[in-house]
Amino acid sequence: xxxxxxxxxxxLRFFIVAALTVFCVSCDKTETxxxxxFILHYLGVTDIGPGMSYTLQAPTYKGSAxxxxxxxxxxxxxxxxxxxDNFVINAExxxxxxxxxxxxxxxxxxxxxxxxxxxxxxxxxxxVQVNMLLAVPEGVTVEPAEVLVNQDxxxxxxxxxxxxxxxxxxxSITGYAIAQxxxxxxxxxxxxxxxxxxxxxxxxxxxxxxxAGESYTLNLKxxxxxxxxxxxxxxxxxxxxxxxxxxYIETEALPDLFETGTENKSVIPTIAGAKEELKFAxxxxxxxxxxxxxxxxxxxxxxxxGNSLEISETPYVxxxxxxNAYGSNDFEGxxxxxxxxxxxxxQPKTFNYTPVNKLYQLGGSLESQKPxxxxxxxxxxxxxxxxxxxxxxxxxxQNIISINSANGAISIANNxxxxxxxxxxxxxxxxxxxxxxxxxxxxxxxxxxPNNFTYVSWGTNIEDEIIFxxxxxxxxxxxxxxxxxxxxxxxxxxxxxxxxxDKVNEIKVLDHDIPSTxxxxxxxxxxxxxxxxxxxxxxxxxxxxxxxxxNNGSNNQLGTDYQGAIxxxxxxxxxxxxxxxxKNIPVFFNVSRNQTNVLLFTPFVVRxxxxxxxxxxxxxxxxxxxxxxxxxxxxxxxxxVDYRRDFSYWNFDNNINHGSGKVxxxxxxxxxxxxxxxxxxxxxxxSRVPLCYYDTKGSTSSDVxxxxxxxxxxxxxxxxxxxxDPTKWIGTDGKYPNGVVIGDIRYDLDGNVSxxxxxxxxxxxxxxxxxxxxETYEGN
Length: 780
Fold this sequence. Notes:
Elements: H1 4-18, E1 23-25, E2 39-42, E3 47-48, E4 54-56, E5 60-62, E6 66-76, E7 79-80, E8 87-89, E9 96-98, E10 107-117, E11 120-132, E12 134-135, E13 140-143, E14 146-150, E15 160-165, E16 173-178, E17 190-192, E18 199-202, E19 215-224, E20 227-240, E21 244-247, E22 256-259, E23 264-265, E24 270-272, E25 279-286, E26 293-294, E27 301-303, E28 316-324, E29 327-340, E30 356-360, E31 366-369, E32 381-384, H2 390-397, E33 401-403, E34 410-412, E35 422-431, E36 434-447, E37 456-457, E38 466-467, E39 489-493, E40 506-507, E41 511-512, E42 519-528, E43 548-549, E44 565-575, E45 578-592, E46 597-602, E47 605-608, E48 619-626, E49 629-633, E50 640-651, E51 661-662, H3 671-678, E52 712-714, E53 722-724, E54 739-748, H4 753-758, E55 770-773
Parallel strand pairs: 3-11, 12-20, 14-20, 22-29, 30-36, 38-39, 39-45, 47-55
Antiparallel strand pairs: 1-2, 2-5, 4-9, 6-7, 6-10, 8-9, 10-11, 13-15, 15-18, 16-19, 17-18, 19-20, 21-24, 23-27, 25-28, 26-27, 28-29, 31-34, 32-35, 33-34, 35-36, 37-41, 40-43, 42-44, 44-45, 46-48, 48-49, 50-51, 50-54, 52-53, 54-55
């Protein structure tokens, strides 16, 4: 089994490679496409400041090897930017250098990259995004600049640093954040204390990922009313401890073999702990002998040529003492050696793997695929070779593909994301007679899961909206959507749904792309709000065809206070002698307030990638209704809209650290509490600042504050689009939300901000908009 030390290092490798997926971009539909599904993956840079330079490493890819890289376009805040050698690409490797940044305008730069693959040209729009910030204001410091984190101390995780300012030297700082850099996966280990302005702390949920002996340097993003500022290399958290987690080789490979009478050496061990004054010593050997020596600097154990060790079936077991500036530790039985007459050299022809001809995507797994019988080689050590493809390396880093170092058995977990093609998993085997090693590959052909599907649609009525009053009702006929952005969204004007004559009492599945050879089942796994106003939706066993039905007599009301409702339905596709595929699909209902003037967002679900802040677009308008139809649009020139209060979150996954519910101090793991904390705001229902546009903390003025303390807002200009700051949507566990935020919207037709603040006049309450946070969303 791997030691705790290797598990920690493996976790670090996971974060490094997992970041590769953040900026996955696919070919524009207008460009030539390749049947291989060619795609580039860049490790993206998010934040950078004036005077900084940076080289973005070569991209990974799927398909034929790319060549002749070129930058096809650069935009600044979505406007074309003249690239005066600020961004330079290596035509052979695809590396991008960011340089000459002293005079660059602040803002978001998007770099589009073109390249050839297999004779075809591909253009990847917005392959990399770089957020150029302003220089840090004068008089800003961090104390201490180096934080010593001693893991031997009881409260070591409480170590912190404080951003300090000199009065009158710069404008007030309104927001604090850690600048994003995808090459530093450890950034999620740190955050700002929501209760102390400018205090940098270690996340409680991430503290066990800090490795003694490592240093973690942070850049800060400070926000003022003048804009966002980069504080480069602002603080370093230096983690130290006495030695811990000494590791030589895998337990499965012990005892190591030494050949009698010849010079033999162990591997150089790895160790967690401070490196200052690090020394190693042999404390004991059982059976007792003085034949072994240890390099006190490296920890390597050896015996010289002509040693007197005798052949024995009894291994020598070592206890090693490691010490440094912070203390010492004894590692009992950490290494063992058996003396043998001869170590068999590895015979290359005997090292092979039988190919795996079928491994399904989405649930397929492989358990302990060992090398073929007949392998010859004494005391072998198996490890993945560095020549593996980037796609394979990414799966290895996440421990999805693993290997037994003692016998070479390869396993692939059922959550693998390997592309449908034949992959070569390359393994190197070594021993003391062949330290260079022999490399062979296990060929694995990954095939698409025949049960896979992308969508199930219950239709929509947004393109033919139904309006009810208290006396009459239109027949309800859901439609297949012509715009997939409207899929599974149903809006009803007025609060009642299906009143007494049950015109709207069933919603059936209208469309899906589940293979005809698969069996389909449906299960209702969640509903919001979970109260008596929406109690008897039946999906699944009682209605195996997926029909949604409300069986609550005349009280078929969707939610309270015109919230509407959300259903989360688990759809399972099975059969075909392949793993079943399960996907959770939300169905959204919106019930508008019965008013003469109705505010509508179409669609009313805004899909958001919390990692990037990318949001789908929506149309906002105010309409009047009469006789069950809309008869005219009103001007939106003077209409102001704002998210105001009663914000709540509903979690779509099983992450217990992202609790559902309203902003409330009573629930410590509430996701919105964490977002509010990232904005430096108190967790209370009255604290509305992080999602308001026209409001600052304690302010009743009409000034717009859109920076620093904002997690997002409805943009106050005429397009009324959603803006999201992705740095604010990271939970205390370092992960992004997967769920929906609902909040009370206020609007005023006369552009009177004071009405919004006072919640009077035409500033009406409404729940027209859902913010659906989904990391898989790639943009419209």
